[in-house]
Design brief:
The complex is a heterodimer of chains A (about 140) and B (about 550). Chain A is mainly alpha-helical. Chain A has a domain of about 100 residues. Chain A is built from 8 helices and no strands. Chain A is elongated and about 75 Å long. Chain B is of the alpha/beta class and about 550 residues long. Chain B has one domain: FAD/NAD(P)-binding domain, CATH 3.50.50.60. In chain B, about 25% of the residues lie in helices and about 20% in strands. Chain B contains 13 helices and 16 strands. In chain B, strand 7 and strand 8 form a beta hairpin. In chain B, helix 5 crosses helix 13 and helix 6 crosses helix 12. The radius of gyration of chain B is 22 Å and the shape is globular. Classes of the chains: A mainly alpha (about 140), B alpha/beta (about 550). Chains A and B meet through helix 2, helix 4, helix 5 and helix 8 of A and helix 2, helix 6, strand 4 and helix 11 of B.
């Protein structure tokens, strides 16, 4: 069976993804982050181990009302639904606009100044710990 | 020993395994003129292939860079049967070993850890003391570049780490505030992560991806810290070399090893002495597979203890959620602060020994993979967003590293059917959490919850030790440590231990073990700092006694 993702499968995936990740407050639904486009291809290229369960799930849901199909899949093929959910969530949180909305810059580079005096030494935060003294049992003689 | 020609067929020393202890040995032996061959089943890792600086990072940590070899399923990994183990097994098979993926919590044991029998009446004492090991701890701090703050009152006075501590960050400060309210111990934690440029390594930038490969090269991966020096001094490193068996002669001395290369060819490497450094699972696997007429139960196993006394540090945690942004995707990860408030035994608690606590960031919004079959309305729809609001960016973890005691029933065996891709028998793990571990975990989880509440957490998630064995090989099995210890115990009595205090096998005088297998007890600390200090002590002894070393003719 073909492992290509045609337009119908993409459409089914996006329908399911919008059930799993709907619009909420200021957040867009999954389709608002274009999860069915290039992100889907990128994820399946990187994680080929997800492809089989993904295809099984979207094929089973094809032509069905997405909300009904998603709940049914969670009962009958939970691995497929979890895989579709993982792909949808991964694509969603890789989207730059979604990251902006939740305040996530990614695993960003934030260089440090090792010579800056630590706050906990400036404000004596560590002092009571040191003042309480040793908490180890010494080597018995 | 130590006189063979460079490049000759028989090496002075064969090291099996290019992880932390193997590369400590390789560095010091080659610097002292030994001809050393190191066989490593994995490959050299291109640090440019790490995902920490890319949007796909979270996704890739669930598979290709997952610490569980059963999840990664790479050819360089061997499958491990953990169906009879409460705790999954984590490790990385490559040049640098698990230091490629470790969190770089660079800990020393406390003095009591070496005297558990004397002080607490359980397990055994080590054949040396904290004070005996301290100079080697000091040296290793410099070799790996430890960042930290001296004066921690959980240790005897000693030398400060060579580099300033990494920042506590918002999560470290928040945790420390709670500990101060309770009057409990905390201290800026030691990490083998450079806080300033060090020995060719760039400094940490708090990217927080330490446990899936450090993009900056700030972390002390041993392929960065030790391998280059060993290669410069003539180390012959053979990658993709999967050892099947250690060979012995009629006199009971080790003569070399049989390994399979990546073309499926069987090869032999002969040596005057052999050091096994394959971790607490891989080392007993090779010894048990090395059966002969002289050693019918496996090599160096006259005590019957090879593979026994496996200790894994059952892990548990409390995650606190706060009503303010704590930038909790930032590193170090690594650990900003630690606590040994409840480390030492208190008989009133109903268990012996204790645990180290450490603060950890909670990472990006994706987290682990969804749990198949989770109630739909708790996982998806608006619940998906509400969970992100509750947890992302505003949480941190108090991780609890529980000391587990040695028990012979907890063990590594050879699986009767499972093999790696070369047909070498795989290990099977039998491990049950003890009653002491259960009581210890319950107590510590309750105290960590108090600490979180003192810090102002509005919600707390308690994560007890794993017991659902069906979850071991999913991408979710991160509630584990990869600390693999005790399966070739060190001691003075050949009837009750496998190696002596120098890592030399009682049964085979030119066979040595330098990895965590030799641990007598596990302590409640991340073990790599102690593995390396013990390995350094052992290799120094081997170098000093080279003239007396018995070798195969």
């Amino acid at each position: 069976m073909s492992t290509m993702i045609d337009d119908d499968l993409r459409s089914t995936f996006v329908g399911l993804a919008d059930v799993l990740i709907p619009a909420y407050k200021t957040m867009p639904p999954a389709s608002g982050a274009s999860v069915g486009g290039e992100p889907l291809d990128r994820i399946l290229a990187l994680r080929d181990d997800l492809r089989e369960a993904f295809l099984r799930g979207v094929r089973a849901a094809a032509g069905e009302e997405p909300a009904t199909a998603a709940r049914k899949m969670n009962e009958e093929d939970p691995e497929a639904l979890a895989t579709i959910g993982l792909i949808a969530a991964a694509a969603y949180y890789m989207d730059p606009d979604v990251r902006d909305l939740i305040g996530y810059p990614g695993q960003e580079r934030r260089p440090i100044d090792p010579d800056a005096p630590p706050d906990y030494l400036q404000n004596d935060m560590l002092k009571p710990v040191a003042q309480r003294g040793a908490i180890y049992r010494p080597t018995p003689t | 020993m130590g006189s063979s020609d460079k490049g000759g067929k028989v090496a002075d020393v064969l090291i099996i395994g290019a992880g932390a202890s193997g590369l400590v040995a390789a560095k010091h032996l080659t610097m002292n003129g030994f001809d050393v061959v190191c066989l490593e089943q994995g490959q050299k890792v291109d640090h440019g292939t790490f995902w920490g600086d890319k949007p796909e990072f979270d996704l890739m940590t669930q598979k290709l860079w997952h610490p569980n070899p059963n999840v990664r399923d790479l050819e360089s990994d061997y499958p491990i049967d953990t169906s009879e183990s409460d705790v999954p097994i984590l490790m990385y098979n490559a040049v640098g070993g698990t230091t490629i993926l470790f969190g770089a919590h660079w800990q020393r044991f406390m003095p009591s850890d070496f005297r558990v029998k004397t002080l607490d009446g359980v397990a055994d004492d080590w054949p040396f003391t904290y004070e005996d090991l301290e100079p080697y701890y000091d040296e290793m701090d410099i070799e790996v570049g430890v960042s930290g703050l001296g004066g921690d009152p959980c240790y005897p006075p000693g030398k400060a780490p060579p580099l300033p501590p990494l920042p506590l960050g918002k999560i470290g400060i928040k945790a420390a505030e709670g500990m101060n309210k309770l009057g409990w111990h905390w201290w800026p934690a030691p990490n083998s992560i450079a806080s300033r440029p060090y020995e060719g390594r760039d400094p940490c930038t708090l990217r927080g991806t330490c446990r899936n490969g450090c993009v900056e090269g700030a972390k002390a991966s041993f392929d960065l810290t030790h391998l280059p020096i060993a290669l410069k001094h003539g180390l012959r490193l053979v990658t993709g070399a999967r050892v099947r068996e250690i060979l012995v002669n009629d006199a009971g001395l080790a003569t070399g090893a049989v390994y399979l290369d990546r073309n499926g060819r069987e090869r032999r490497q002969l040596a005057q002495a052999i050091i096994v450094c394959c971790n607490g699972v891989g080392t007993p696997r090779i010894l048990l597979a090395s059966k002969s007429a002289k050693f019918p139960d496996g090599l160096a196993n006259s005590s019957g203890l090879v593979g026994k006394n496996l200790m894994l540090h059952p892990y548990c945690a409390v995650v606190g959620h706060f009503d303010e942004c704590l930038d909790s995707w930032l590193g170090p990860a690594g650990q900003p602060i630690q606590s040994m408030q409840f480390y030492e035994t208190d008989p009133r608690r109903g268990f012996v020994r204790g645990a180290k606590w450490h603060v950890l960031p909670t990472g990006g919004p994706l987290g682990g993979p969804p749990t198949p079959g989770a109630p739909f309305d708790e996982a998806w729809g608006e619940a998906f967003h509400r969970e992100r609001e509750r947890t992302f960016g505003c949480s941190f973890e108090w991780g609890i590293l529980a000391e587990d005691l040695p028990e012979e029933a907890n063990r590594v065996e050879l699986d009767p059917t499972l093999t790696d891709s070369d047909g070498v028998p795989s290990p099977r793990i039998v491990y049950n959490n003890s009653e002491n571990t259960k009581r210890l975990s319950t107590f510590h989880l309750a105290r960590a919850k108090e600490a979180m509440e003192a810090s102002g957490a509005v919600d707390v998630t308690v994560r007890p030790p794993l017991t659902d064995r069906s979850q071991h090989n999913t991408g979710a099995s991160l509630l584990a440590t990869g600390h693999l210890m005790g399966t070739c115990k060190m001691g003075r009595d050949p009837a009750t231990s496998v190696v002596n205090e120098w890592g030399q096998a009682h049964d085979v005088p030119n066979l040595f073990i330098f990895d965590g297998s030799v641990f007598v007890t596990s302590s409640g600390f991340n073990p790599t700092g102690t593995i390396c200090a013990v390995a350094l002590r052992s290799v120094r002894h081997l170098i000093a006694t080279r003239g007396d070393q018995k070798v195969a003719a």
